[in-house]
Amino acid sequence: MAQTYDVIVIGAGPAGYVAALRCAQLGMEVACVEQWINTQGNPALGGTCLNVGCIPSKTLLESSEQYQKLKQGLDTHGIQLGSVELDLQQMMQRKHEIVAQLTDGIAQLFKSNGIVWLQGRGKLLAAHQIEVTAHDGSTSLYSADHIILATGSSPVTIGAAPLDGERIVDSTGGQEFTEVPKTLGVIGAGVIGLELGSVWKRLGSEVILLEAVDQFLADVDEQIARDALRQFTRQGLDIRLGARVVKTEVGDEHIAVYYQDQNGDHTLTVDNLLVCVGRIPNSDGLAAPEAGLLFDERGYVHTDEYCQTNLPGVYAIGDLVRGPMLAHKGSEEGVMVAESIAGHSVNPLNHDAIPWVIYTHPEIAWVGKTEQILKTQGVPYNVGTFPFAANGRAKAMGESSGMVKILAHAETDAILGAHIIGPMASELIQECVLAMEFSASSEDLARTIHGHPTLYEAVHEAALAVHGMALHKVNT
Ligand code: FAD
Ligand code: AMP
Predict the structure, then answer these.
(1) Is the CB of 152 under 6 A from ligand 1?
(2) Which of 277, 279, 357 for a ligand 2 pocket mutation test, highest count of atoms within 8 Å of Cβ?
(3) Phi-psi bin for 114: left (phi > 0), alpha (psi -120 to 50), beta?
(4) What is the pLDDT of residues 156-205, one digit of tens each?
(5) What is the DSSP letter of 401?
(6) CB-hemisphere CA count at 13 Å for 161?
(7) When you count CB atoms within 10 A of the terminal residue's CB, does the N or C end of the chain come out lower?
(8) What is the DSSP string of 16-56?
(9) Which ligand ends up closest to the CA of 288?
(10) What's the pLDDT tens digit per position in 352-384?
């Protein structure tokens, strides 16, 4: 007899483990299937995000930024330093410890919430039935009233640059180098390529990014993307746009990377190569064909806006379904599904209020529509911008490049988008997300009292600037 639960979740990344936790909080009997084995050879919860994604990459970004700051010196602050040395092993150790603390924390939360962790690979057999293949190869059957699929995504690989796990690596290997590569090629100047490229550049690599598309950060507001490209180039990141990699050859010493751009064929020689060309949903083998689960043409599980699949009682969330591949998007879907299973009235996710962040230096963050999208859609809008160069806190921090830009509807003044490039953009954007979630106007934000001196004053001033009322700049 198959063991039965109220809910079984397959996958314990930020989508699946959050769904499991919320279901348990709401009084359901929950099991969660997870197959992850970490670099120490131990089963681990937390998925891509905690093990090889958001958390380790942000840990390395932080460490490398501290190193670079000290290396460049703090003379302007009146601080004289001795020599600054890199201990890469310790930097990696710190990252492993943070990952372990957080993944162990999820295991602890599972225990305290009575969630059963089924270790192994889950497969949907039918609407209410799954099979789990344990790490020793044994199989067991389980059934549940509700099944939530949350198997996430994996890095895309390309034939032009097959991974060898050592010198040609994906984003996981790109966070594990034991020596700083002298020259590092990065295929793909998207979010992950830029973040990991920045880490190794700060630690001393010469970094060359090859990006097939002509436009830099095509999804970002064009004004912000232009500023980002200028700043990254000034830092020494060599970003080559319209450069499509077609072949690689691994030699004894170096890797030859062949690419084409509008000027013809080129060869680049690097020590290591990082392939960051996107991610694909983990849907292969997830469901037995007889189960009849519907997928779209790109391999995502097909769902409605409530994350309900075509099978009764079966839901899919996170990177496995349409929408941005972001941890917080999957987590919110997990909460929504758990609450709808519990019979609560729920709303679909507001996709216009999902924040995006690129943790480079400067950070880039945005929510809602870009100026180019508003133009294409013919939506009338007003723009307010404010530079960090005129913000006292940013000056004190020595972080005065970049700006805040707010786009508001020309008639209703509703905030349609907010775009930030500069210090702590990742944190500042949240004020704009909250404003949009509550359908605020730019005037609402402009009339909200902001503490002084804070970076948030730049958001305040950008909101004032929408109506030509900024106080600390000349309104144009
Ligand atoms: P995942 O986190 O991929 O988890 C899915 C889990 O399901 C995995 O643990 C997997 O082992 C398990 N699984 C798969 N198939 C099965 C099966 N058949 N049976 C059992 N278990 C299975 N997002 C952000 O929001 N902010 C960031 O800063 C950010 N940085 C990133 C940096 C990097 C380097 C990378 C690679 C990604 C980053 N992301 C970031 C993206 C983020 O990690 C993903 O969007 C997020 O992890 C998706 O969550 P998920 O739960 O859908 O899937
Ligand atoms: P993202 O989708 O943010 O992860 O970014 C991945 C990037 O990789 C995209 O901007 C793609 O255009 C880029 N890309 C994909 N294939 C290639 C290739 N063969 N050569 C160079 N860039 C590529």
Answers:
(1) yes
(2) 277
(3) left
(4) 999 999 999 899 999 999 999 999 999 999 999 999 999 999 999 999 99
(5) -
(6) 29
(7) N
(8) HHHHHHHHHHTT--EEEEE--B-TTS-B--SHHHHHTSHHH
(9) 1
(10) 999 999 999 999 999 999 999 999 999 999 999
Q: Which residue has the tokens 């344990």?
A: 134
Note every long-range contact of 167-170, with CB atoms under 8 Å and residues 24 or more positions apart, other chains counting: 167/250, 167/255, 167/271, 167/272, 167/273, 168/248, 168/250, 168/255, 168/272, 168/273, 168/275, 169/272, 169/273, 169/274, 169/275, 170/274, 170/275, 170/276
**Domains of the chain with bracketed CATH:** 3-155+280-349 (3.50.50.60), 168-277 (3.50.50.60), 353-465 (3.30.390.30)
Residue 5 phi/psi, 5-degree rounding, is -130, 165
Alpha-carbon dihedral angle through residues 117, 151, 427, 55, given to the nearest 10 degrees = 60
Contacts of 375 (CB under 8 A, 6+ apart): none
- Which amino acids are annotated catalytic? 452
d(CA 428, CA 357): 11
Ligand 2 surroundings by CB, under 6 angstroms:
158, 160, 187-188, 190-192, 210-213, 244-245, 276-278
